[in-house]
Amino acid sequence: MKLSIFCGVRSAKTFQHSAQPRRFLSDRCSTASEMEFGSSLPGEQNSPDDAPLSVLNDGIKRVNGTAKEETTRSVADEKGTRGPHILMVFIPSPGHAPMFVQLLYLLRHHRNVKVTVVSGGPVLAEIVKLHERGDFNDLDMHFESLFGPPPLYTKDPKFPVQAALASAQMETEFQGVKNRLIEDKDSVGAPTSLISDHLLWWTKDTAKELGIPWYTLSTAPTWFTLYEFEIVLRRGRDLDLNDLAQKFEKVNVSGIVDGRVDDIPQRFLEFPEFYANLTHYSLRATGLLINSAFEVEGSAGSLATIIQLVDQRKKTDPGTPLEDTKVLPIGPMLQMSGFGELSKLNYEPNEALQWLDTQEPGTVLYVALVSFGDVLKDVIPQLASGLEESGVPFLWIFKGQTIEHLLPEGFRERIQGRGFIETGSTSQASILLHPATGGFLTDCSWIAMLESLCAGVPMITWPLSVEQPMNARFATDIQKVGVLVRDGPTEDYSTTVTKEDVSGAVKRLMVSEDPEVKELKRNTLELKQLLSQTAGEGGSSYVTLRNFITDLLTM
Protein backbone atom coordinates (compact mmCIF):
# COMPACT_ATOMS: atom_id res chain seq x y z
CA MET A 1 0.00 0.00 0.00
CA LYS A 2 1.39 3.40 -0.94
CA LEU A 3 0.52 6.72 0.58
CA SER A 4 1.44 10.17 -0.67
CA ILE A 5 1.62 13.02 1.79
CA PHE A 6 1.95 16.61 0.64
CA CYS A 7 2.86 19.29 3.17
CA GLY A 8 1.94 22.80 2.15
CA VAL A 9 2.89 23.29 -1.48
CA ARG A 10 6.13 21.35 -1.34
CA SER A 11 6.80 18.50 -3.73
CA ALA A 12 5.14 15.17 -3.16
CA LYS A 13 6.95 12.38 -1.39
CA THR A 14 5.80 8.80 -1.29
CA PHE A 15 6.57 6.06 1.17
CA GLN A 16 5.78 2.35 1.31
CA HIS A 17 3.97 0.96 4.34
CA SER A 18 4.80 -2.42 5.74
CA ALA A 19 2.06 -4.99 5.49
CA GLN A 20 -0.38 -4.84 8.39
CA PRO A 21 -3.52 -6.79 9.22
CA ARG A 22 -6.50 -4.86 7.93
CA ARG A 23 -9.20 -3.82 10.34
CA PHE A 24 -12.24 -2.25 8.84
CA LEU A 25 -14.56 0.35 10.30
CA SER A 26 -17.58 -1.82 9.55
CA ASP A 27 -16.20 -4.34 12.03
CA ARG A 28 -15.61 -1.80 14.74
CA CYS A 29 -17.93 1.17 14.74
CA SER A 30 -20.83 2.68 12.91
CA THR A 31 -19.71 6.08 11.81
CA ALA A 32 -16.69 8.00 10.76
CA SER A 33 -17.40 10.39 13.60
CA GLU A 34 -16.48 7.52 15.92
CA MET A 35 -12.92 7.77 14.64
CA GLU A 36 -12.54 10.28 17.48
CA PHE A 37 -10.62 12.94 15.56
CA GLY A 38 -7.91 14.27 17.81
CA SER A 39 -7.79 11.16 20.02
CA SER A 40 -6.68 7.56 19.73
CA LEU A 41 -8.34 5.05 17.49
CA PRO A 42 -10.75 2.56 19.05
CA GLY A 43 -8.79 -0.08 20.88
CA GLU A 44 -5.73 2.13 21.25
CA GLN A 45 -4.61 4.11 24.28
CA ASN A 46 -3.25 7.65 24.26
CA SER A 47 0.02 8.09 26.07
CA PRO A 48 0.61 11.40 27.85
CA ASP A 49 3.00 12.46 25.12
CA ASP A 50 0.89 11.22 22.22
CA ALA A 51 -0.11 14.07 19.90
CA PRO A 52 -2.29 13.49 16.83
CA LEU A 53 -0.05 15.61 14.60
CA SER A 54 2.78 13.18 15.21
CA VAL A 55 1.02 10.80 12.84
CA LEU A 56 1.77 13.09 9.90
CA ASN A 57 5.27 13.85 11.14
CA ASP A 58 6.07 10.16 11.58
CA GLY A 59 4.68 9.45 8.14
CA ILE A 60 6.96 12.01 6.57
CA LYS A 61 9.94 10.54 8.45
CA ARG A 62 9.17 7.18 6.86
CA VAL A 63 9.75 8.62 3.39
CA ASN A 64 12.23 6.39 1.60
CA GLY A 65 15.79 7.69 1.68
CA THR A 66 16.20 10.61 -0.68
CA ALA A 67 13.82 13.35 -1.71
CA LYS A 68 12.96 11.71 -5.03
CA GLU A 69 9.50 12.63 -6.25
CA GLU A 70 7.57 9.39 -6.47
CA THR A 71 3.81 9.41 -6.93
CA THR A 72 1.28 6.65 -6.55
CA ARG A 73 -0.35 5.79 -9.86
CA SER A 74 -3.60 3.95 -10.41
CA VAL A 75 -4.07 1.21 -13.00
CA ALA A 76 -5.96 3.71 -15.12
CA ASP A 77 -2.96 6.05 -15.13
CA GLU A 78 -0.63 3.25 -16.18
CA LYS A 79 -2.85 2.57 -19.17
CA GLY A 80 -2.63 6.22 -20.16
CA THR A 81 -6.30 6.93 -19.61
CA ARG A 82 -7.90 9.36 -17.22
CA GLY A 83 -9.47 7.45 -14.35
CA PRO A 84 -11.68 9.01 -11.68
CA HIS A 85 -9.75 11.34 -9.37
CA ILE A 86 -11.82 12.92 -6.61
CA LEU A 87 -10.51 16.01 -4.84
CA MET A 88 -11.89 16.56 -1.31
CA VAL A 89 -11.31 19.86 0.51
CA PHE A 90 -12.66 20.52 4.00
CA ILE A 91 -12.12 22.47 7.20
CA PRO A 92 -9.84 20.63 9.68
CA SER A 93 -12.57 20.37 12.29
CA PRO A 94 -13.88 17.23 14.04
CA GLY A 95 -17.40 18.33 13.16
CA HIS A 96 -16.72 18.63 9.43
CA ALA A 97 -14.55 15.60 8.67
CA PRO A 98 -16.89 12.63 9.37
CA MET A 99 -19.07 12.87 6.27
CA PHE A 100 -16.02 13.08 4.02
CA VAL A 101 -14.63 9.99 5.72
CA GLN A 102 -17.97 8.25 5.14
CA LEU A 103 -17.57 8.91 1.42
CA LEU A 104 -14.09 7.36 1.54
CA TYR A 105 -15.57 4.21 3.04
CA LEU A 106 -18.08 4.02 0.22
CA LEU A 107 -15.44 4.61 -2.45
CA ARG A 108 -13.15 1.90 -1.05
CA HIS A 109 -15.23 -0.76 -2.81
CA HIS A 110 -14.35 0.61 -6.25
CA ARG A 111 -11.07 -0.09 -8.00
CA ASN A 112 -8.85 2.33 -9.89
CA VAL A 113 -10.10 5.36 -7.95
CA LYS A 114 -7.75 8.11 -6.83
CA VAL A 115 -8.68 10.47 -3.99
CA THR A 116 -6.77 13.53 -2.83
CA VAL A 117 -7.76 14.79 0.62
CA VAL A 118 -6.93 18.41 1.44
CA SER A 119 -7.26 19.40 5.10
CA GLY A 120 -4.85 19.65 8.02
CA GLY A 121 -4.01 19.20 11.67
CA PRO A 122 -5.16 16.36 13.93
CA VAL A 123 -8.18 15.70 11.72
CA LEU A 124 -6.04 14.81 8.73
CA ALA A 125 -3.68 12.86 10.98
CA GLU A 126 -6.56 10.61 12.05
CA ILE A 127 -7.58 9.98 8.45
CA VAL A 128 -3.99 9.03 7.64
CA LYS A 129 -4.14 6.56 10.55
CA LEU A 130 -7.25 4.97 9.08
CA HIS A 131 -5.58 4.62 5.71
CA GLU A 132 -2.41 3.17 7.19
CA ARG A 133 -4.30 0.42 8.97
CA GLY A 134 -6.12 -0.52 5.75
CA ASP A 135 -9.59 0.88 6.31
CA PHE A 136 -9.90 2.28 2.80
CA ASN A 137 -8.82 -0.91 1.04
CA ASP A 138 -6.84 -0.15 -2.10
CA LEU A 139 -7.95 3.43 -2.71
CA ASP A 140 -5.09 5.37 -4.29
CA MET A 141 -4.98 8.09 -1.64
CA HIS A 142 -3.00 11.31 -1.43
CA PHE A 143 -3.05 13.80 1.42
CA GLU A 144 -2.41 17.53 1.36
CA SER A 145 -1.45 18.63 4.88
CA LEU A 146 -2.19 22.20 4.05
CA PHE A 147 -4.30 24.21 6.44
CA GLY A 148 -2.65 25.55 9.55
CA PRO A 149 -4.58 26.37 12.72
CA PRO A 150 -7.27 28.79 11.53
CA PRO A 151 -8.70 31.60 13.69
CA LEU A 152 -11.56 29.33 14.63
CA TYR A 153 -12.31 30.16 18.21
CA THR A 154 -14.08 33.21 19.57
CA LYS A 155 -15.31 34.16 23.03
CA ASP A 156 -18.90 34.01 21.86
CA PRO A 157 -20.38 30.79 23.34
CA LYS A 158 -23.23 30.93 20.83
CA PHE A 159 -20.82 30.83 17.87
CA PRO A 160 -17.36 29.71 19.00
CA VAL A 161 -16.19 28.74 15.50
CA GLN A 162 -15.49 31.74 13.27
CA ALA A 163 -16.31 30.25 9.89
CA ALA A 164 -15.80 33.40 7.81
CA LEU A 165 -12.26 34.09 9.05
CA ALA A 166 -11.28 30.42 8.91
CA SER A 167 -12.56 30.13 5.34
CA ALA A 168 -10.70 33.25 4.24
CA GLN A 169 -7.42 32.03 5.72
CA MET A 170 -7.82 28.64 4.08
CA GLU A 171 -8.49 30.26 0.72
CA THR A 172 -5.09 31.94 0.95
CA GLU A 173 -3.35 28.73 2.02
CA PHE A 174 -5.02 26.79 -0.78
CA GLN A 175 -3.72 29.09 -3.51
CA GLY A 176 -0.49 27.15 -4.09
CA VAL A 177 -2.32 23.86 -4.48
CA LYS A 178 -4.83 25.50 -6.80
CA ASN A 179 -2.07 26.85 -9.04
CA ARG A 180 -0.38 23.46 -9.21
CA LEU A 181 -3.65 21.73 -10.09
CA ILE A 182 -4.39 24.20 -12.86
CA GLU A 183 -0.89 23.80 -14.30
CA ASP A 184 -1.43 20.03 -14.47
CA LYS A 185 -5.09 20.07 -15.49
CA ASP A 186 -4.43 18.45 -18.88
CA SER A 187 -2.30 15.65 -17.48
CA VAL A 188 -3.44 12.09 -17.02
CA GLY A 189 -4.61 11.70 -13.44
CA ALA A 190 -5.85 15.28 -12.98
CA PRO A 191 -8.94 15.66 -10.76
CA THR A 192 -12.24 14.75 -12.39
CA SER A 193 -14.49 16.12 -9.63
CA LEU A 194 -14.25 18.30 -6.52
CA ILE A 195 -16.19 17.91 -3.27
CA SER A 196 -15.77 20.73 -0.78
CA ASP A 197 -16.98 21.71 2.64
CA HIS A 198 -19.91 23.98 1.93
CA LEU A 199 -18.24 26.80 3.88
CA LEU A 200 -15.35 26.79 1.38
CA TRP A 201 -17.40 28.36 -1.41
CA TRP A 202 -14.27 29.72 -3.11
CA THR A 203 -13.26 26.22 -4.27
CA LYS A 204 -15.78 26.75 -7.09
CA ASP A 205 -13.07 28.75 -8.91
CA THR A 206 -10.74 25.75 -8.85
CA ALA A 207 -13.45 23.47 -10.22
CA LYS A 208 -14.31 25.99 -12.92
CA GLU A 209 -10.72 26.37 -14.10
CA LEU A 210 -10.23 22.61 -14.08
CA GLY A 211 -13.47 22.16 -15.98
CA ILE A 212 -14.83 19.61 -13.50
CA PRO A 213 -18.06 19.24 -11.48
CA TRP A 214 -18.17 20.93 -8.07
CA TYR A 215 -20.19 19.52 -5.18
CA THR A 216 -20.65 21.16 -1.79
CA LEU A 217 -21.21 19.03 1.29
CA SER A 218 -23.11 20.54 4.20
CA THR A 219 -22.32 19.03 7.58
CA ALA A 220 -25.03 21.13 9.24
CA PRO A 221 -28.74 20.33 9.43
CA THR A 222 -30.93 21.65 6.64
CA TRP A 223 -32.56 24.43 8.66
CA PHE A 224 -29.14 25.90 9.47
CA THR A 225 -28.42 25.99 5.76
CA LEU A 226 -31.71 27.82 5.32
CA TYR A 227 -30.54 30.39 7.86
CA GLU A 228 -27.64 31.01 5.53
CA PHE A 229 -29.84 31.04 2.44
CA GLU A 230 -32.82 32.96 3.76
CA ILE A 231 -32.66 34.58 7.18
CA VAL A 232 -29.23 36.18 6.91
CA LEU A 233 -29.71 37.44 3.38
CA ARG A 234 -33.25 38.70 3.77
CA ARG A 235 -33.22 40.00 7.33
CA GLY A 236 -29.68 39.85 8.62
CA ARG A 237 -28.92 43.54 8.55
CA ASP A 238 -32.24 44.34 10.22
CA LEU A 239 -31.77 42.06 13.22
CA ASP A 240 -30.43 43.42 16.48
CA LEU A 241 -29.77 40.71 19.01
CA ASN A 242 -29.18 43.33 21.69
CA ASP A 243 -32.85 44.26 21.43
CA LEU A 244 -34.48 42.12 24.12
CA ALA A 245 -37.90 42.37 22.49
CA GLN A 246 -36.46 41.17 19.20
CA LYS A 247 -34.54 38.33 20.84
CA PHE A 248 -37.78 36.43 21.42
CA GLU A 249 -39.36 37.32 18.09
CA LYS A 250 -40.31 34.18 16.20
CA VAL A 251 -38.68 33.44 12.87
CA ASN A 252 -40.28 31.26 10.25
CA VAL A 253 -37.86 28.62 9.07
CA SER A 254 -39.41 25.77 7.16
CA GLY A 255 -39.65 22.66 9.30
CA ILE A 256 -39.20 24.50 12.61
CA VAL A 257 -41.93 25.95 14.77
CA ASP A 258 -41.32 28.52 17.50
CA GLY A 259 -37.86 29.33 16.24
CA ARG A 260 -36.64 32.59 17.80
CA VAL A 261 -34.30 35.33 16.71
CA ASP A 262 -32.20 34.48 19.76
CA ASP A 263 -31.47 31.09 18.23
CA ILE A 264 -29.42 32.85 15.56
CA PRO A 265 -25.83 33.32 16.79
CA GLN A 266 -24.78 36.97 16.75
CA ARG A 267 -21.70 36.28 14.65
CA PHE A 268 -23.87 34.65 12.05
CA LEU A 269 -25.12 38.15 11.24
CA GLU A 270 -21.79 39.94 11.31
CA PHE A 271 -20.45 38.66 8.00
CA PRO A 272 -23.29 39.13 5.49
CA GLU A 273 -20.88 39.25 2.54
CA PHE A 274 -19.42 35.86 3.42
CA TYR A 275 -22.84 34.23 3.65
CA ALA A 276 -24.02 36.05 0.53
CA ASN A 277 -21.11 34.51 -1.40
CA LEU A 278 -21.74 31.13 0.19
CA THR A 279 -25.38 31.22 -0.85
CA HIS A 280 -24.75 32.59 -4.34
CA TYR A 281 -22.21 29.96 -5.28
CA SER A 282 -23.75 27.03 -3.41
CA LEU A 283 -26.91 27.50 -5.43
CA ARG A 284 -24.78 27.20 -8.55
CA ALA A 285 -22.87 24.05 -7.63
CA THR A 286 -23.28 20.81 -9.54
CA GLY A 287 -24.85 19.37 -6.42
CA LEU A 288 -25.67 20.19 -2.80
CA LEU A 289 -25.00 17.18 -0.57
CA ILE A 290 -27.16 17.38 2.56
CA ASN A 291 -27.08 15.08 5.58
CA SER A 292 -30.85 14.73 5.87
CA ALA A 293 -33.81 13.03 4.19
CA PHE A 294 -37.45 13.72 3.36
CA GLU A 295 -38.46 10.93 5.70
CA VAL A 296 -36.89 12.87 8.57
CA GLU A 297 -38.18 16.34 7.77
CA GLY A 298 -41.50 15.79 6.02
CA SER A 299 -42.93 17.50 2.95
CA ALA A 300 -42.97 20.95 4.61
CA GLY A 301 -39.45 20.80 6.00
CA SER A 302 -36.32 22.80 5.23
CA LEU A 303 -35.11 20.23 2.71
CA ALA A 304 -38.20 20.71 0.57
CA THR A 305 -37.77 24.48 0.85
CA ILE A 306 -34.17 24.36 -0.37
CA ILE A 307 -35.24 22.32 -3.37
CA GLN A 308 -37.95 24.88 -4.10
CA LEU A 309 -35.41 27.67 -3.71
CA VAL A 310 -33.08 26.04 -6.24
CA ASP A 311 -35.98 25.49 -8.65
CA GLN A 312 -37.02 29.13 -8.33
CA ARG A 313 -33.49 30.30 -9.06
CA LYS A 314 -33.40 28.08 -12.14
CA LYS A 315 -36.43 29.91 -13.50
CA THR A 316 -35.13 33.38 -12.72
CA ASP A 317 -31.51 32.75 -13.73
CA PRO A 318 -31.66 30.55 -16.86
CA GLY A 319 -28.65 29.73 -18.97
CA THR A 320 -26.26 29.44 -16.02
CA PRO A 321 -24.77 26.34 -14.37
CA LEU A 322 -27.60 26.72 -11.89
CA GLU A 323 -29.95 24.92 -14.24
CA ASP A 324 -28.04 21.71 -13.55
CA THR A 325 -27.85 22.09 -9.76
CA LYS A 326 -29.11 19.07 -7.86
CA VAL A 327 -30.10 18.87 -4.21
CA LEU A 328 -28.88 15.50 -2.95
CA PRO A 329 -30.25 14.42 0.45
CA ILE A 330 -27.99 11.55 1.50
CA GLY A 331 -28.64 11.39 5.24
CA PRO A 332 -28.32 9.96 7.69
CA MET A 333 -24.69 9.35 6.80
CA LEU A 334 -24.38 6.80 9.55
CA GLN A 335 -25.95 3.53 8.58
CA MET A 336 -25.44 2.86 4.86
CA SER A 337 -24.10 -0.54 3.91
CA GLY A 338 -20.51 -0.10 2.89
CA PHE A 339 -19.19 1.29 6.15
CA GLY A 340 -21.12 -0.75 8.70
CA GLU A 341 -24.65 -0.90 10.04
CA LEU A 342 -25.53 0.12 13.58
CA SER A 343 -27.28 -3.17 14.25
CA LYS A 344 -24.44 -5.44 13.10
CA LEU A 345 -21.36 -4.37 14.97
CA ASN A 346 -18.90 -5.97 17.33
CA TYR A 347 -17.11 -3.64 19.73
CA GLU A 348 -13.91 -4.28 21.60
CA PRO A 349 -14.62 -4.38 25.35
CA ASN A 350 -13.39 -1.55 27.55
CA GLU A 351 -14.11 -0.31 31.04
CA ALA A 352 -17.05 1.88 30.05
CA LEU A 353 -18.84 -0.89 28.15
CA GLN A 354 -18.03 -3.40 30.87
CA TRP A 355 -19.58 -1.04 33.41
CA LEU A 356 -22.69 -0.76 31.23
CA ASP A 357 -22.89 -4.56 31.23
CA THR A 358 -23.50 -4.44 35.00
CA GLN A 359 -26.49 -2.08 34.73
CA GLU A 360 -30.16 -2.88 34.24
CA PRO A 361 -31.66 -2.41 30.74
CA GLY A 362 -32.73 1.13 29.91
CA THR A 363 -31.62 2.62 33.24
CA VAL A 364 -28.44 4.50 32.30
CA LEU A 365 -28.25 8.08 31.04
CA TYR A 366 -25.41 8.64 28.58
CA VAL A 367 -23.92 12.14 28.94
CA ALA A 368 -21.73 13.83 26.31
CA LEU A 369 -21.32 17.58 25.86
CA VAL A 370 -18.72 19.00 23.50
CA SER A 371 -17.88 22.67 23.32
CA PHE A 372 -15.06 25.16 22.90
CA GLY A 373 -13.30 27.79 24.95
CA ASP A 374 -14.62 28.71 28.38
CA VAL A 375 -18.18 27.45 27.96
CA LEU A 376 -17.71 24.21 29.89
CA LYS A 377 -16.32 25.87 33.01
CA ASP A 378 -19.85 27.12 33.71
CA VAL A 379 -21.58 23.94 32.56
CA ILE A 380 -19.61 21.19 34.32
CA PRO A 381 -20.31 22.07 37.99
CA GLN A 382 -24.07 22.35 37.43
CA LEU A 383 -24.16 19.21 35.30
CA ALA A 384 -22.23 17.16 37.85
CA SER A 385 -24.35 18.34 40.77
CA GLY A 386 -27.56 17.73 38.83
CA LEU A 387 -26.54 14.20 37.89
CA GLU A 388 -25.68 13.46 41.50
CA GLU A 389 -28.96 14.90 42.77
CA SER A 390 -31.05 12.93 40.24
CA GLY A 391 -30.10 9.53 41.66
CA VAL A 392 -30.07 8.08 38.12
CA PRO A 393 -27.18 5.87 36.89
CA PHE A 394 -25.10 7.68 34.28
CA LEU A 395 -22.15 7.21 31.95
CA TRP A 396 -20.35 10.50 31.31
CA ILE A 397 -17.84 10.60 28.47
CA PHE A 398 -15.34 13.39 27.88
CA LYS A 399 -13.26 13.21 24.73
CA GLY A 400 -9.68 14.06 25.55
CA GLN A 401 -10.54 16.76 28.09
CA THR A 402 -9.57 17.19 31.72
CA ILE A 403 -12.49 18.15 33.95
CA GLU A 404 -11.27 17.08 37.38
CA HIS A 405 -10.72 20.68 38.52
CA LEU A 406 -14.31 21.55 37.56
CA LEU A 407 -16.04 18.73 39.45
CA PRO A 408 -17.53 19.38 42.91
CA GLU A 409 -15.25 18.26 45.73
CA GLY A 410 -15.81 14.61 46.59
CA PHE A 411 -18.05 14.06 43.55
CA ARG A 412 -16.37 10.89 42.31
CA GLU A 413 -16.53 9.26 45.71
CA ARG A 414 -20.22 10.07 46.18
CA ILE A 415 -21.31 8.66 42.81
CA GLN A 416 -19.12 5.55 43.06
CA GLY A 417 -20.96 2.58 41.52
CA ARG A 418 -23.86 4.68 40.20
CA GLY A 419 -21.89 6.87 37.83
CA PHE A 420 -18.99 6.21 35.49
CA ILE A 421 -16.78 8.97 34.04
CA GLU A 422 -14.38 8.32 31.17
CA THR A 423 -12.05 10.63 29.29
CA GLY A 424 -11.10 8.02 26.69
CA SER A 425 -12.44 7.23 23.24
CA THR A 426 -15.28 4.74 23.69
CA SER A 427 -17.39 4.61 20.56
CA GLN A 428 -20.52 6.73 20.97
CA ALA A 429 -22.51 4.32 18.82
CA SER A 430 -21.53 1.40 21.04
CA ILE A 431 -22.86 3.27 24.08
CA LEU A 432 -26.11 4.34 22.44
CA LEU A 433 -26.74 0.80 21.22
CA HIS A 434 -26.05 -0.84 24.57
CA PRO A 435 -29.23 -2.30 26.17
CA ALA A 436 -28.51 -0.46 29.43
CA THR A 437 -28.64 2.97 27.77
CA GLY A 438 -32.05 4.57 28.18
CA GLY A 439 -31.36 8.24 27.47
CA PHE A 440 -28.82 10.66 26.03
CA LEU A 441 -27.99 14.10 27.45
CA THR A 442 -26.55 15.85 24.40
CA ASP A 443 -25.46 19.28 23.19
CA CYS A 444 -27.48 18.59 20.02
CA SER A 445 -24.79 18.50 17.39
CA TRP A 446 -26.47 17.18 14.25
CA ILE A 447 -24.29 14.07 14.02
CA ALA A 448 -24.90 13.18 17.68
CA MET A 449 -28.65 13.60 17.24
CA LEU A 450 -28.70 11.36 14.17
CA GLU A 451 -26.74 8.69 16.02
CA SER A 452 -29.15 8.84 18.93
CA LEU A 453 -32.17 8.57 16.64
CA CYS A 454 -30.65 5.70 14.66
CA ALA A 455 -30.12 3.87 17.96
CA GLY A 456 -33.66 4.65 19.18
CA VAL A 457 -32.50 6.56 22.28
CA PRO A 458 -34.53 9.61 23.48
CA MET A 459 -32.67 12.78 24.39
CA ILE A 460 -32.29 15.51 26.96
CA THR A 461 -31.27 18.53 24.89
CA TRP A 462 -28.75 21.04 26.23
CA PRO A 463 -27.78 23.19 23.21
CA LEU A 464 -24.63 25.25 23.66
CA SER A 465 -23.64 26.82 20.35
CA VAL A 466 -24.07 27.39 16.61
CA GLU A 467 -27.06 25.50 15.17
CA GLN A 468 -27.68 23.48 18.33
CA PRO A 469 -30.64 25.56 19.65
CA MET A 470 -32.59 24.90 16.45
CA ASN A 471 -31.56 21.25 16.52
CA ALA A 472 -32.96 21.06 20.04
CA ARG A 473 -36.26 22.57 18.89
CA PHE A 474 -36.43 20.03 16.09
CA ALA A 475 -35.97 17.21 18.61
CA THR A 476 -38.40 18.52 21.22
CA ASP A 477 -41.02 20.45 19.23
CA ILE A 478 -41.15 18.79 15.80
CA GLN A 479 -40.19 15.15 16.14
CA LYS A 480 -40.94 15.05 19.88
CA VAL A 481 -38.08 12.71 20.70
CA GLY A 482 -36.54 14.65 23.57
CA VAL A 483 -37.01 17.07 26.46
CA LEU A 484 -35.22 20.38 27.01
CA VAL A 485 -32.85 20.50 29.96
CA ARG A 486 -34.78 23.61 30.95
CA ASP A 487 -38.07 24.93 29.63
CA GLY A 488 -38.11 28.27 27.88
CA PRO A 489 -35.74 30.11 25.52
CA THR A 490 -32.30 28.64 24.88
CA GLU A 491 -30.59 31.97 25.52
CA ASP A 492 -27.41 31.58 27.57
CA TYR A 493 -27.93 27.89 28.28
CA SER A 494 -24.22 27.70 29.06
CA THR A 495 -24.57 29.98 32.09
CA THR A 496 -28.20 29.83 33.27
CA VAL A 497 -28.95 26.10 33.54
CA THR A 498 -28.89 25.04 37.19
CA LYS A 499 -28.34 21.72 38.92
CA GLU A 500 -32.07 21.67 39.68
CA ASP A 501 -32.81 21.99 35.95
CA VAL A 502 -30.48 19.09 35.19
CA SER A 503 -31.82 16.87 37.95
CA GLY A 504 -35.43 17.56 36.98
CA ALA A 505 -34.88 16.82 33.29
CA VAL A 506 -32.97 13.62 34.05
CA LYS A 507 -35.64 12.28 36.40
CA ARG A 508 -38.40 13.24 33.98
CA LEU A 509 -36.87 11.32 31.09
CA MET A 510 -35.46 8.36 32.97
CA VAL A 511 -37.84 7.52 35.83
CA SER A 512 -41.11 9.45 35.53
CA GLU A 513 -44.40 8.04 34.31
CA ASP A 514 -45.17 11.24 32.41
CA PRO A 515 -47.45 10.36 29.43
CA GLU A 516 -45.56 12.83 27.23
CA VAL A 517 -42.29 11.07 28.01
CA LYS A 518 -43.81 7.70 27.16
CA GLU A 519 -44.97 9.17 23.86
CA LEU A 520 -41.57 10.60 22.98
CA LYS A 521 -39.96 7.22 23.65
CA ARG A 522 -42.42 5.64 21.21
CA ASN A 523 -41.69 8.39 18.71
CA THR A 524 -37.97 7.72 19.00
CA LEU A 525 -38.38 4.03 18.18
CA GLU A 526 -40.65 4.82 15.25
CA LEU A 527 -38.16 7.33 13.85
CA LYS A 528 -35.36 4.79 14.28
CA GLN A 529 -37.28 2.40 12.04
CA LEU A 530 -37.95 5.14 9.49
CA LEU A 531 -34.30 6.15 9.36
CA SER A 532 -33.28 2.54 8.91
CA GLN A 533 -35.58 2.25 5.92
CA THR A 534 -34.34 5.55 4.48
CA ALA A 535 -30.70 4.52 4.69
CA GLY A 536 -31.26 0.87 3.84
CA GLU A 537 -31.17 -0.70 0.42
CA GLY A 538 -33.88 0.83 -1.75
CA GLY A 539 -34.44 3.77 0.62
CA SER A 540 -34.40 7.32 -0.74
CA SER A 541 -31.03 8.29 0.74
CA TYR A 542 -29.49 4.96 -0.24
CA VAL A 543 -30.52 5.43 -3.86
CA THR A 544 -29.44 9.09 -3.97
CA LEU A 545 -26.03 8.30 -2.50
CA ARG A 546 -25.40 5.35 -4.81
CA ASN A 547 -26.36 7.41 -7.85
CA PHE A 548 -24.02 10.17 -6.70
CA ILE A 549 -21.12 7.72 -6.31
CA THR A 550 -21.84 6.34 -9.78
CA ASP A 551 -21.74 9.86 -11.22
CA LEU A 552 -18.38 10.52 -9.54
CA LEU A 553 -16.86 7.39 -11.03
CA THR A 554 -18.08 7.99 -14.58
CA MET A 555 -17.04 11.63 -14.99
Compile the SSE list and pairings:
Blueprint: E1 2-7, E2 13-16, H1 54-61, H2 75-78, E3 85-89, H3 97-107, E4 114-119, H4 121-132, E5 140-145, H5 163-183, E6 193-197, H6 203-210, E7 214-218, H7 222-235, H8 244-247, E8 250-253, E9 256-260, H9 272-282, E10 287-290, H10 294-297, H11 302-316, E11 326-329, H12 351-357, E12 364-368, H13 375-390, E13 394-397, H14 411-414, E14 419-422, H15 428-433, E15 437-442, H16 446-455, E16 459-461, H17 468-478, E17 482-484, H18 493-496, H19 499-510, H20 515-535, H21 540-553
Parallel strand pairs: 1-5, 3-4, 3-6, 4-5, 6-7, 7-10, 10-11, 12-13, 12-15, 13-14, 15-16, 16-17
Antiparallel strand pairs: 1-2, 8-9
Structure commentary:
- Helices cover 39% and strands 14% of the residues.
- Strand 12 (364-368), helix 13 (375-390) and strand 13 (394-397) form a beta-alpha-beta unit.
- The strands form three sheets. A nine-stranded mixed beta sheet has the order 2-1-5-4-3-6-7-10-11, with helices on both faces. The protein has a six-stranded parallel beta sheet with strand order 14-13-12-15-16-17, with helices on both faces. A two-stranded antiparallel ribbon has the order 8-9.
- The protein has 555 residues and is α/β, with parallel strands linked by helices.
- This is Glycosyltransferase.
- InterPro entries: UDP_glucos_trans.
- Belongs to the UDP-glycosyltransferase family.
What descriptive keywords fit this protein?
single chain, 555 residues, alpha/beta, Rossmann fold, nine-stranded mixed β-sheet, six-stranded parallel β-sheet, 39% helix, 14% strand, globular
